Task: inverse folding
C-alpha cells in the first residue's frame, strides 16, 4: 500500500533527491515558496521545509532502501523505529496552503529578523538604509527604524520608526 513519508535530506539537496525519486517512479512533493533573496542570482524559490521532502511509495514493493538511501538523502523520519506515515489529507491541505502563499507573492518575511539591516527600495524613503524592527498586524506591513543624522556632523541623532509595505524593503548583506 502506498503512503506518504517524510525524507530528511542533506542541506540544499531537496531538488536532487526529488529528481532522483521521480526518475525511479516514486511520487514526490517538495513544497517550494517564493522568496526575495539578498543575492539576485540565488534561487527565487526555496523549500518551505528546508532539508525535508515528502515521497509517496509502497515501501514493501520498492524497498525502504530505494527511498532512504537516494543520493542526497539522510534518512526517513521515524517514530518508534518505524517510518512515519503522513495522511493524504495532510498533503492535500499543505498543497492548498502553499498555493495561498504563492498567490500572496510568497513569504516576504522569511529572511527578516529584528535588527537586520534593510534598504528601502520604493516610496519617499527609497535608497535609505534602515533597521528591520517588526512585522505589523495586517497584510505585508513592517516597521523599520531610520537613523537620523546631524546635518553636518554625520553623527546619529535618533531613530525614526516608519511603517512600510514589506515589498518596499530588501535585506542588506552585513558589512565586513
Result:
Amino acid at each position: 500500500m502506498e503512503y506518504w513519508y517524510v525524507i530528511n535530506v542533506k542541506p540544499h539537496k531537496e531538488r536532487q533527491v526529488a529528481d532522483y525519486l521521480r526518475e525511479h517512479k516514486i511520487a514526490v512533493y517538495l513544497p517550494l515558496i517564493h522568496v526575495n533573496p539578498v543575492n539576485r542570482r540565488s534561487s527565487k524559490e526555496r523549500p518551505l521545509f528546508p532539508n525535508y521532502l515528502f515521497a509517496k511509495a509502497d515501501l514493501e514493493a520498492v524497498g525502504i532502501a530505494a527511498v532512504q538511501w537516494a543520493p542526497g538523502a539522510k534518512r526517513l523520519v521515524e517514530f518508534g523505529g518505524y517510518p512515519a506515515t503522513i495522511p493524504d489529507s495532510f498533503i492535500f491541505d499543505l498543497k492548498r496552503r502553499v498555493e495561498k502563499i504563492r498567490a500572496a507573492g510568497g513569504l516576504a518575511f522569511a529572511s527578516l529578523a529584528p535588527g537586520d539591516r534593510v534598504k528601502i527600495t520604493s516610496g519617499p524613503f527609497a535608497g535609505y538604509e534602515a533597521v528591520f524592527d517588526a512585522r505589523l498586524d495586517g497584510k505585508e506591513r513592517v516597521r523599520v527604524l531610520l537613523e537620523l543624522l546631524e546635518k553636518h556632523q554625520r553623527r546619529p541623532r535618533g531613530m525614526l520608526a516608519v511603517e512600510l509595505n514589506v515589498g518596499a524593503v530588501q535585506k542588506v548583506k552585513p558589512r565586513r
Remarks:
- The domain at 117-171 is CATH 2.30.30 (SH3 type barrels.).
